[in-house]
Amino acid sequence: MSRSVLVTGGNRGIGLAVARELAAAGDAVAVTYRSGEPPEGLFGVRCDVTSTEDVNAAFEKVEAEQGPARVVVANAGITKDTLLAIMNEESFTSVIDTNLTGAFRVAKRAVKPMMRARGGRIILVSSVVAMLGSAGQTNYAASKAGLIGFARSLAREIGSRNITVNVVAPGFVDTDMTAVLGEDQQAAIRSIIPLGRIAQPEEVARTVRFLASDDAAYITGAVIPVDGGLGMGH
Predict the structure, then answer these.
(1) Which residues cross the membrane (predicted)?
(2) Is 217 inside any structural domain?
(3) SS3 sequence of 59-119
(4) Using CA atoms, how far apart are residues 73 and 167, in angstroms rounded to an integer?
(5) What is the distance between the alpha carbons of residues 78 and 1, in angstroms, rounded to a whole number?
């Protein structure tokens, strides 16, 4: 049966791949986007996840279009990389506000309708750097690590209502973010990945699709790495 799905930051990269994967599985998929245009074939809602008003309005539009969201994928995120010694406070707090507090706003708005329906899936997109660390990304790593504690605490709160909360932790993925790297940089990255290559967005999307499926009904509070082995042991 088709479910109402909302993917934040779903107009490009991992978010777009997730949205298309779930749509291909038969779900009614809506995406939020902050700038540009919505992707063709998907219901798009302009939304800045740093605004509670935007998030609430986006959910209302999705509910009116395709019903209450039964699957929510919190994917929207930003980077502002620099070494801590020269990082200004805005560069730290803005990344936390988008990546971590943004996920809080989205999950908070999603939870009550799911609780009334006694079922749902919340999936947060973190990163391998949440556990591995990354020089120049103290802000980003902190935000992505925070998602894990947030997800596991929320999983304990709402598990009795048949709502699962899980985290996907991608490694390096072939997106606009990695496309700007030079060939030497990409080669250096591949050299430290046991599988020797950068992931495709669709590989992350298929993991999200699994967590959103009935096959994953007994999985909650999990962190699933999709990183080619880069973060193993962490």
Answers:
(1) none
(2) yes
(3) HHHHHHHHCCCCEEEECCCCCCCCCHHHCCHHHHHHHHHHHHHHHHHHHHHHHHHHHHHCC
(4) 10
(5) 34
The residue whose two tokens read 């490694």 is 171
Looking at residue 179, what is its pLDDT? 73
Q: Encode pLDDT of 86-101 as tens digits.
A: 999 999 999 999 999 9
Query: 172 is written with which tokens?
Result: 């390096």
Number of residues that make up the chain: 234
Percent of the residues in the chain that have a pLDDT greater than 70, as a whole number: 99
Q: What single letter denotes the amino acid at residue 48? A: D
Domain range enclosing 30? 4-172+202-225
pLDDT in tens, 64-88: 999 999 999 999 999 999 999 999 9
Q: Which positions are catalytic?
A: 140
Kindly report the CATH number assigned to the domain that includes residue 33. Answer: 3.40.50.720
Q: What share of the chain is helix, strand, coil (3-state, %, to 5)?
A: 50, 15, 35
